Amino acid sequence: MEAGLCLFAASLPVSIAGANIGWVLAAVGLAVCAREGDAVDWRAWRGGLTPPLTLFLAAAAAAALFGPAPYHPLENLQKDAHKLGLYALLATAFTVASPRRPLAAFAAGAALAALYGAAQWAGGLWVPGAVPRAHAWLHPVTFGEQMAVAFCGLACLLADPAERTRLNWGAAALTGAALVMSNTRGALAAAAAGLFAVGLFVPRLRRAAAATGVLAVMALLAADLLAPQRSFILTLLGRGHAVAARSQGQFERIYLWKAAWAMGWDHPLFGAGLSG
Length: 276
Prior knowledge:
Layout: H1 2-11, H2 16-35, H3 50-65, H4 71-93, H5 100-124, H6 140-158, H7 166-181, H8 185-201, H9 206-226, H10 232-236, H11 244-249, H12 252-266
């Protein structure tokens, strides 16, 4: 089971197929543990994330079933059901296996992806008209989100004086740099909010919370300006280096939110469903 958990964790930033093989092996291992009489806490699946994930899944299902076009939202619903199932599996498996090795495996996979992503970003600097974004083997947004999770986890680890090793400092610097190079501004903002929240709730880190907020704002501005072709700031100032069509694309999400607001008024009770 632990081998499956390690394969799942190490493969997450590298290979979806590898991650799927890993969690299946972990599930088989958990079944073997149960058969051999190991102490498995089957109630652990009802962890802290189970209620919000279940509530979201139920709301999404209602929106799909009662929306104007049910088939497409229902097609997307299984992805979120899969996440809930994986969370239940991991929460239960960690009552038998220590999370230390799987977390180390995830850090190693994230560091490998970060190195490759940094090389992609550096190579993109020499391509005329290209927007350099680190993404390794994933979409830049997915990559940025994973780097945000890895960076926050390593930052929390470094809060323990016993864990302030050169390896952990190096991995944190690497994943943090890769997060900025991904130019995924939402992931950067989320990482900043996460670290700020940790600083507020851990008494000995409260003094660092304000400094974290300032550094996070600076990193967010730097990430935006690192790619002038897709910079919100330069576009708003009318100084973007991209052609008009690309600059206009930076506001695409604002138009999508306006459309979503209008759809909400048209379907106020259940909405239009996932991807509706």
